[in-house]
Amino acid sequence: MEKHMVISPTSCMGLVGIDEGAYKIALTRDPDSIAADAGSLDPGPHYLGAGLPHVAAYKMKNDCRIMMEGLLTQKTPMVMGSAGGSGGRKHIEWHLNIMKEVANEMGKTFKVAIIDTTLDKEYLKKRIKRETIEGLDHGQPLTDDIVDHCTEIVAQIGVEPIIKALNMNPDIVLAGRACDNACFAAEPVRRGYDKGLALHLGKIIECGSASAIALPNSKIMRTPMLATLIDDYFLVEPATDDWISTVRSTAGHEAYERTNPFYQLEPGGILDMRNAKLSQHTERCVKVSGSTWIDDPQSYKIKLEGAEKLGYRALFIVGARDPAFIENVDWIINFTKTRIINEFEPKGLYEGKDYRIVFRIYGKNGVMGSLEPQKKITSHELGIIMEIIAPTQELAHEICYFGKYGMVWCNYPGRITISGNVGYAFSPSIIDAGEVYKLSVHHLLPIDRDQSLFDIRIEEVGSK
Amino acid sequence: MNLREIASIIRTKNAGPYWFTADIMFDNTQLYQAVKNSQAITREQVAKLYNVGVENISEVIYHDEGRIIKVNIKRPHVSGDPGDSDVLGMQQHAPLLDIDISFHKLFK
User: Fold this and answer.
1) Which of A258, A387, A389 minimises the CB distance to B15?
2) What residues form DSSP beta bridges with A439?
3) CB-based contact A44 B80, cutoff 8 Å
4) Closest CA to A13 of A93, A95, A89, A122
5) Distance in angstroms (rounded) separating the CA atoms of residues A327 and A324
6) What is the value of ipTM here, to two decimals?
7) Which of A129, A205, A282, A413 gives 20 to 30 Å between its CA and that of A195?
């Protein structure tokens, strides 16, 4: 077979930013397809639940511009996945609007194939009646209640819907929630390359140059990655000479963000990397072979994601420098918490049910919580965040205000500083932090192999 | 000798919203093999370091080609849930830094 080169311009669209000079160098290598993912569940459930992006709009616009301008000189199939960060409908709209703006400013038009990966709630509830929708990494099956409580539920698609979209000959495929590696693998698989190898390739370059190493002379934070499929192997290398790929850096990225470096659960099957072989092809290029695809013989299962709104958050962020305060911090936190509970119980508001209190004590166990093995505080100061989550922003704010005075003026043992127990970081001291979401859908749904669940529409963006 | 003096990278990150995954990586194959052969990193020991039962810790996985030792820690909170203190799981590695790797064990 002819070679097929895939370019990965960046780790995540809108995040660090594509290095434009390096990307132009990458394009001179005459790639056969280009892909980038724009999202992840890693920043937490808020973005999916609230329908908001997790990057700055101007950075996303700049990355869109660089990639879309590149298409004018080097026309290749292009896939952008996990649109707008979480791949929901609002995220797609946000991402697409940015592309429209860029296209208008360029005075060009682009044909965009948009894959809707949001699932209809009524459809899901029908499925729940018929069968058990199993939890992924947890034992709780999906319920009507959970479905109703989520803002929106997205499916993380594999290569198949992206291939369908590519078959419509668009300039750009904009996919809702998608597996990172599927964005890179879709075009090679469409052209007949091995699915196991193509997905493994995608896994290695999906995070851009995270799988490579910058040489000491490098002046750029990131560089695009190139991966070339040739028969039964592929080659991986960074786009610019100031970066190299090594077996260690490549294998290191295989292990990244995964509980097992040898298997990866994918939509419709498993990527098996047990027999994958990595070798140093040239000083800056790694050769990979031996990874295989195993179809799930029973059903094509796809991962669902959904976040539900818990309420609103208010924060009180302070610091303490007094040694007696630090010594008695547990007493103070306990006093403050008890005082809040005693105040609001007679009003019919119960902690843990109607609202929540969370304390974070930086300098004690703020980063690791219950996993922190070091029990003794050795710091001369502590950072404390009192967090209240309540059904309305107003209530969270009120409870936080009440809690504040407990902490600030309680008479802890050994207190000789009577003006106030902590230093406030901000005015206003109580910060309304907005909506709070929780991930409540992380389930596996068997779907038809024809992928008819996902609508694909064509939209022309921009103007001449 | 502590693990931090031997390994070139010790990191944690989310592996999905329910797990932290720890990667301990070595620049040198002999050091990697020596640490692997010493069996100094065990499920039980990692459980002890993180104050949790062994059921919250995965088997230790050895990736010879990458010179990586991997172990997974069940998150006490699902990523982003109220009370979660490390949404992306990037700062849970510190207890691993001080695992004692006896020099005699390494090179006997």
Assistant:
1) A258
2) A307
3) yes
4) A95
5) 5
6) 0.93
7) A282
Burial of A323 (0-12, 13-18, 19+ CB in 10 A): exposed
For A427, the 3-state DSSP assignment is coil
Write the pLDDT tens digit of every residue in A111-143.
999 999 999 999 999 999 999 999 999 999 999
How far apart, in Å, are the Cα atoms of A343 and each of A332, A339, A399? 16, 6, 9
| Interface check A251 vs B, CB under 8 A | yes
The reported pTM is 0.95
Residue A136 Ramachandran class (φ > 0 left, ψ -120 to 50 alpha, else beta): beta
Quote the CA–CA distance of A77 and A445 in Å, as a whole number: 29
Q: Which residues of B52-72 are buried (b: 16+ CB within 10 A; e: fewer)?
A: beeebbbebbbbebbbbbbbb
Q: For the residues of A42-88, what is the DSSP string, one character each? A: TT-THHHHHT--SS-HHHHHHHHHHHHHHHHHS---EEEESTTTT-S
Instruction: Note whether B90 contacts A: Cβ–Cβ < 8 A.
Output: no
pLDDT of residue A431: 98
Using a CB-CB distance cutoff of 8 angstroms, which residues of chain A are in contact with residue B16? 41, 136-137, 259, 442
**B89 to chain A: nearest residue by CA?**
A42
Interface test with B, best of A200, A259, A277, A388 (most B CBs within 10 A): A259
Q: Where are the beta strands (DSSP E) in A191-336?
A: 213-214, 225-230, 233-238, 243-244, 263-266, 269-272, 277-282, 285-289, 292-295, 300-320
Alpha-carbon distance of B87 to A367, in angstroms, equals 10
Amino acid occupying residue A39: G
Tell me whether residues B16 and A442 touch, CB distance under 8 A. yes
Tokens found for residue A140: 């709780």
pLDDT single digits (tens) A255-298: 899 999 999 999 999 999 999 999 999 999 999 999 999 999 99
DSSP B46-96: HHHHTTS-GGGBPPPEEETTTTEEEEEEE-SS-TTSTT-S-TT--S--HHH
Instruction: Identify whether A31 is preceded by a cis peptide bond (ω within 30 of 0).
Output: no
